[in-house]
Specification:
Elements lengths: L3 H23 L17 H12 L6 H14 L6 E3 L1 H12 L1 E4 L2 E6 L2 E7 L4 H5 L6 E5 L2 E2 L4 H10 L2 E8 L3 E8 L1 E4 L3 E6 L2 E6 L6 H14 L4 E5 L8 H10 L5 E6 L7 E4 L10 E6 L6 H11 L4 E4 L7 E7 L5 E10 L15 E2 L6 H26 L1
Parallel strand pairs: 11-12, 12-15, 15-16, 16-19
Antiparallel strand pairs: 1-18, 2-9, 3-4, 4-5, 5-6, 5-7, 7-8, 10-11, 13-14, 13-18, 17-18
């Protein structure tokens, strides 16, 4: 048996051997891909920076190293934490306000290029035919993988952009898109006979007010059934999502937020009355429904306020806080996880519909048929109750 002291001595002897070996390797300054360099674990980041400055074959700036280190640290946490460069921060701010100049897409890094995670309806990208899950492989004939920094500059500075896109992992298409003012209309109202359809594309500063206006219009028309369409909704401002759920709930739990610090854990409750007076609601979700949109669906589901139809949602049940670094951009950091009113963790799990309908099926028609049936039965029962009295 090796006791603690023996184990410690063995480690010291091993470390001494390694140091001697490294000293021998470095005597003639002959470095190759098999050379080993000792780096102090006590100041690992600074030691790596020093090694890069001294031995890296190309030119590298201090800012490049700092940004790279920050991006690496944040990306190692989860897929949602990230660094926002100063040049991009204003766009992030404008998006939350509801208006900006751009293409109208959200993107993220992918192994084979840049993945389009969502496309804003009626935006330049939407009108040009770009779709969620498309992979951008070249920008203005420049390969994304080998020249990402240059491609980022083109996306930021150029107004007219030529894209080569890989769709469904096999079809290559060419698309030219020109930037324009993107008006982030997050709420669209339409009607199918006696059914109202509220499409919420994402959540920004205007979403709650737009939903209130939509419901007012619906009530004036005497409509008793709403379909809230959250398919493809990637989320947005979490407070707006909470307040949308609040509109349709009375004295109910909306969401539990759990953070690292127990003192910051909180449960959010609804306030006021149900804006739709307990009218019938169906919520549509799919595999691209994420974050705040999942929060809304889960809140209405767990409180028996709505029937959920569609596919299991994405499972991005976490809260990100934007922390600004004056003059140097910001970091987006995951600061809490979201749990449904029934205590189910949304992250990695998502929302499972009451009725599972594949994306290839006519989900909207299924919802309309079901809601019409519910309204008919409800009215019949009310008439019978009146007759009985």
């Amino acid at each position: 048996m090796v006791n603690i002291y023996d184990s410690f001595m063995i480690k010291k002897i091993f470390l001494l051997c390694v140091i001697l070996l490294l000293a021998a390797c470095k005597q003639d300054k002959a470095y190759d891909d098999k050379a080993i360099v000792m780096i102090s674990a006590d100041s690992l980041v600074q030691a790596v920076v020093n090694e890069i400055k001294e031995n890296y074959a190309g030119d590298v700036s201090k800012q490049q190293l700092e940004v790279g280190a920050i991006k690496g640290m944040l990306s190692s946490l989860d897929e949602n934490s990230m660094y926002i460069a100063q040049s991009d921060y204003q766009t992030y701010y404008q998006v939350t306000r509801g208006l900006y100049f751009g293409l109208g897409i959200e993107i993220q890094d992918a192994n084979n290029g840049i993945e389009v995670t969502s496309v804003i309806e009626d935006s330049p990208a939407f009108n040009a035919g770009i779709k969620a899950c498309d992979i951008i492989t070249t920008i203005n004939d420049i390969d994304v993988i080998s020249n990402r920094a240059q491609c980022n500059k083109i996306l930021l500075e150029c107004n007219k952009i030529n894209l080569k896109i890989l769709r469904n992992k096999e079809h290559e298409i060419q698309i030219t898109v020109k930037k324009n003012i993107v008006n982030l209309k997050t709420v669209k109202l339409s009607f199918h006979e006696k059914i109202a359809i509220i499409k919420i594309t994402h959540f920004n500063d205007n979403t709650v007010q737009n939903v209130i206006q939509a419901v007012d219009t619906i009530k004036k028309k005497g409509i008793h059934g709403i379909i809230i369409d959250l398919r493809g909704n990637p989320g947005g401002i979490i407070e707006q999502a909470v307040n949308v759920a609040d509109l349709f709930l009375e004295n109910a739990v909306i969401v539990h937020m759990r953070s690292r610090k127990q003192c910051e854990n909180k449960t959010v409750f609804s306030h006021g009355n149900d804006i739709f007076d307990k009218g019938h609601i169906i919520v549509l979700i799919d595999k691209s429904t994420a974050s705040g949109a999942e929060l809304v669906a889960a809140a209405l589901h767990d409180n028996n306020r709505a029937i959920i139809i569609g596919e299991q949602s994405y499972g991005k049940g976490s809260l990100q806080t934007i922390i600004q670094i004056p003059g140097k951009g910001a970091i987006k950091l995951t600061t809490a996880y979201l749990y449904t009113p029934n205590g189910n963790k949304l992250d990695k799990n998502g929302v499972i519909p009451n009725i599972i309908v594949g994306d290839c099926d006519n989900v909207m028609q299924r919802a309309i048929d079901l809601l019409q049936g519910i309204i008919t039965v409800s009215h019949r029962n009310n008439d019978e109750a009146i007759n009985l009295s």
